[in-house]
Design goal:
Structural class: mainly alpha
CATH topology of the largest domain: hpI Integrase, Chain A
CATH architecture of the largest domain: Orthogonal Bundle
Radius of gyration: 27 Å
Number of domains: 2
Shape: elongated
Distance between the termini: 56 Å
CATH superfamily of the largest domain: Intergrase catalytic core
Number of strands: 3
Length: about 270
């Protein structure tokens, strides 16, 4: 290990106060890079860095090593160890697709709950269908009051401080809500309540979706968006329904859209049989 790497690592510990894991990772990556070079690390060029990184397929590992190298050369430039400062942009890592459930999985999980069920079960069914039908954040759903629902629409108080939005509710969810409210033994302004007729908590909502679907409530939000995108909905419409301030947040669903288009071509295009 060269004296320059030693100086940089000392700087990380004393001046930056980095964690032991970060220290060890940077040390390992820089030693690996210098070994690849076969010369002192401060003699490296941007071409050397690219040649080194080109061997690494995993983009997360690549970006971690690049972060170490860029940080080192920023340090080396400020210490006058090198005359020229260079910085290579990190590789863009595609966002992983959010977990989602198919419609059949959701409906089958609550198919045993009919109008003769207890009001607790009817509430659970209504909550699950409401989340899947509207795509609301769980915090938004739990803040819905009875007065917020009118003519098949729900008025949503945005969870992140933005303006209100209104979202349509599918008839099957409306029916489930009506059955639940008809049997609910208490009066409350809140749509979803616990046994004491107080507003349902996030923990209780999580336990409900975990019990029936083995997922968090947020997965139903992703399932809502995914169903719309696969059905051909415009991303800007999905953005509006989800309450995303920026379309960039909604862009993750384009991966699903592209994959669906690919599958459609592979399945139906006549050349795919050849």
């Amino acid at each position: 290990m060269s004296k320059y790497i030693e100086a940089f690592l000392e700087y990380l510990l004393i001046n930056k106060g980095v964690s032991k894991n970060t220290y060890e990772a940077y040390k390992r990556d820089l030693i690996q890079f210098e070994k690849f070079l076969g010369k002192d690390i401060i003699q490296a060029t941007s071409a050397d860095v690219i040649a080194f990184l080109s061997q690494i397929e995993n983009k997360r590992s690549l970006n971690r090593k690049l972060s170490a190298i860029n940080s080192f050369f920023d340090f080396a430039y400020k210490r006058d160890y090198v005359d020229e400062k260079f910085k290579i942009k990190q590789a863009k890592i595609p966002k992983s697709l959010p977990k989602f459930l198919e419609k059949e999985e959701i409906l089958n999980s609550i198919s045993h709950i009919d109008s003769n069920a207890s009001w607790f079960e009817l509430r659970d069914k209504a909550l699950i269908l409401f989340l899947y039908a509207t795509g609301l954040r769980i915090s938004e759903a739990l803040n819905v009051k009875l007065s917020d629902i009118e003519d098949g629409w729900v008025k949503v108080e945005m969870a992140k401080g933005e303006k209100q939005r209104i979202v349509p509710i599918a008839p099957i969810a409306i029916k489930a809500i009506e059955e639940y409210l008809h049997k609910r033994p208490c009066n409350s302004q809140w749509l979803f309540v616990n046994k004491n007729c107080n507003k349902l908590s996030r923990i209780s909502a999580f336990n409900i979706t975990k019990k029936y679907l083995n997922v968090s409530p947020h997965v139903l939000r992703h399932s809502f968006a995914t169903s719309l995108v696969l059905g051909g909905a415009d991303l800007r419409v999905v953005q509006e329904l989800l309450g995303h301030a920026s379309l960039n947040t909604t862009q993750i669903y384009t991966h699903i859209q592209k994959e669906n288009l690919k599958e459609t071509v592979l399945k139906y295009h006549p050349l795919e049989d050849l």
